[in-house]
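DM from R.C. (forwarded with permission)

"hey, sorry to bug you on a friday — could you get me a structure for this? deadline for the figure draft is monday and I only need the backbone to look sensible"
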Amino acid sequence: MGPVPRTLELFYDVLSPYSWLAFEVLCRYKNIWNISLQLQPTLIGGILRESGNQPPAMLPHKAVYLRSDLRLLSQHHQVPIHFPKDFFSVILKKGSLTAMRFLTAVKMEHPELLEKVSRELWMRVWSRDEDITEPPSILAAAEKAGMSMEQAQELLERVSTPQVKNQLKETTEAACKYGAFGLPVTVAHLQDETHMLFGSDRLELLAHLLGTSDNGTSYRGRCA
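My reply, with the result:
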C-alpha cells in the first residue's frame, strides 16, 4: 500500500485562462505527484470585489502583456488558448456567473464529470470563442463532456436555487480566507501546514513543496 495522497484544492473560474493552464497541469500530474485534486469552482468576480483587485486587462500595459504571455504559455503547455474577438464584452460584461453556478451544481450532483465539463466550458470561451452564458451553450458543453441532456437540463434548472448559490458563495469565501486576490489559487495541505499559491506560474514551487522537484518535470502535454 503506497503513501496517502496529499490534498490539493484548485480554486478556479472558467473566465480565467490562467486557471485553465493550472487546471490542465494539475490534472496531468495528479497521479505522478500522488495528489488528491479537489476542484473548487469559484467566482472570480467575488474574489476581485473582496480583495479590491481588478482584472489585469483593465491596465493597458498588462493587457498588452497578457496576449503575448498567454500565447507563449499556450504553446508551452499545449493548451489551445485563443483570445475572444470581443474580449472586453466576454470577460467584463458577460462574465461567468451562470457557468460557475452550473459547475457548482455539477460538483454537488455529478462530481465525476466536473473535470470534463469544466474543460469543455474553457474550450468554448477560450479556444472556440463561443458563448458560456446562454443556456443552450452550457447544455452543449455538458453534453459534449458526457452528460445526458436530461441530467444537464436538470442541473441548469438548479443554478438559481439557494443551495447552489450558497455553495458557490461559500467556496468563493473559502478562497478569500486563504488570501486569494485573483485566480487560480492552489491550496496545498501538507502535514500540519497549508500553503496558498497564486497563479499558474508557481507549479515548480508546488513541486518543491510536494518533494517532487527533482523529477525533471516540464509540465507539458496535450490538452485532454
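R.C.: lifesaver. The chain has a mean pLDDT of 93.
me: no worries. The two ends are 29 Å apart (CA to CA).
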